[in-house]
From TrEMBL:
<dbReference type="GO" id="GO:0046872">
    <property type="term" value="F:metal ion binding"/>
</dbReference>
<dbReference type="InterPro" id="IPR006121">
    <property type="entry name" value="HMA_dom"/>
</dbReference>
<feature type="domain" description="HMA">
    <location>
        <begin position="2"/>
        <end position="71"/>
    </location>
</feature>
<dbReference type="InterPro" id="IPR042885">
    <property type="entry name" value="HIPP47/16"/>
</dbReference>
<protein>
    <recommendedName>
        <fullName>HMA domain-containing protein</fullName>
    </recommendedName>
</protein>
<dbReference type="Pfam" id="PF00403">
    <property type="entry name" value="HMA"/>
</dbReference>
Length: 123
């Protein structure tokens, strides 16, 4: 299960920022690390099996103040595509709710060799 973890870190300079990113990137299960926020004080960690508490404790020991802002599950692209497909189908069904069903096709077998042109039989 992939997780997206947002951690607010007290970062005073570029050196502290790169140190924090390097520490988090070396943690087990981390896929990517990014910096967000108005003051560039939030680390966004995406990974599989990452323990937010351990990452926060590591940052507190090496960098300074660190608090967990949020932890949420990240959905895969395949799940997103299947959800959008289901939503499109549902909207198509809702678009024509009272549309009548298609009539069944009836085929006639008319022989041109017969003397009566109106003599046709249903197949």
């Amino acid at each position: 299960m992939k997780q997206k973890i947002v951690i607010r870190v007290q970062i005073n300079c570029d050196k502290c920022r790169s140190k924090a990113m390097q520490l988090v990137a070396e943690a087990d299960g981390v896929d990517s690390v990014a910096i967000e926020g108005e003051n560039k004080d939030q680390l966004v960690v995406v990974g599989d099996g990452v323990d937010p508490a351990n990452v926060t404790i590591l940052l507190r020991k090496k960098v300074g103040r660190a608090t967990i802002v949020k932890v949420e599950e990240v959905k895969d692209d395949a799940e997103k595509k299947s959800e959008t497909t289901v939503q499109k189908i549902e909207t198509m069904v809702q678009w024509y709710p009272n549309y009548p069903p298609c009539p069944q096709a009836v085929w006639y077998d008319c022989e041109s060799s017969s003397s009566n042109p109106n003599a046709c039989s249903i197949m």
